[in-house]
Amino acid sequence: MSDTRSTIAALALACLGSSLPATPAHAEHAPSTTPTATTLRLAPARLASETWIVPPVVMPGTRLPTPPGYSVSWMLDGQRLRTSVLQNASSKAKAVQLTGTMTLPTGEAITKRFKVLLLGNDAHRLIAYARIPTGAQQANQPLIARSVHLALGIPGKKPQPLNGNYGVLFASGDYVGIDRVDQRGIANPALFYFADGSLGIIATRVTMAGTPVPSQSSSALIYKADPHHHANFTELGLLHLDAAGEVRYPQAVWDSSAGHYVVSWKDQSGAPHWATVEDLARTEMVPTPYFPFAHGMRSQIAVRGNLSATHEGPLASVDTRSGDTGLGALPMPGWPAAWRSAVASPRR
To answer: Which alpha helices (DSSP H) does the chain contain, by range?
Structure first.
């Protein structure tokens, strides 16, 4: 990153310093170890509960999710909610516990407890996106366009691109020979929070033409920001999902009730899929031909004992992508007045 981009990214992420409580409150009614008829009958409901998630940071006005075909009641800090829409009349964020109870057709219930930061009524969104290349004259050639861009989403206003609509994070290339590198780009980035409150980015890795890398088309690329230095991102590597098709529009969310992440995506036909990951920051080093660093070992997200099987179907969660644009947006605390002025006249 250039000095300008480092400065702007640091300002852009400076409001993300508050870590969220990461101690999980595990879901009740753990599956029985003996497969009885009751267990088999309840398996679909328990499967639905895996996809029933409230993210660790939410905006006022957020509608709490309900798995299709089930009824859910909610409590906030022990008080029953009359509506499933969260409200916060204050400009200050507050940490709350949301308790959701999903009633099954048998009359039994599954309860999940989420630790959530409910933002104040002046909260904004940070939006991640990649651009469509136009040309070098517009400083928007493929290498620049196919990178992570950030914008500030202000309620009632058009998103304001940060850093002059220039990329702030770029994918590393693939070594295909001695001193020969195939450049890689980023497509469909989405933001999420890690369990420690730090910012994460999940995306797909593509060629400079914007097409999937054949050996990586069923994978997602993960970045993690330093929780103390928010502009410093580490490329943790690829997460190789157990996907039969391509991985497009990936998203990740920390489930504070279950104590794991849920990664979701769509395949090339638009069908939704998901899997759970115990720790998205757990990496392993793997031998990589021609890779000149770390003795030829490259980082990737650990799979063994960390990644579940793939399931079909959508999540019952708060969607962090805009249905109209596909942009990945993340709720975040209010921005300092000085930074709002800087956004209006970005440095170039």
So the answer is: 3-13, 37-50, 142-145, 337-344
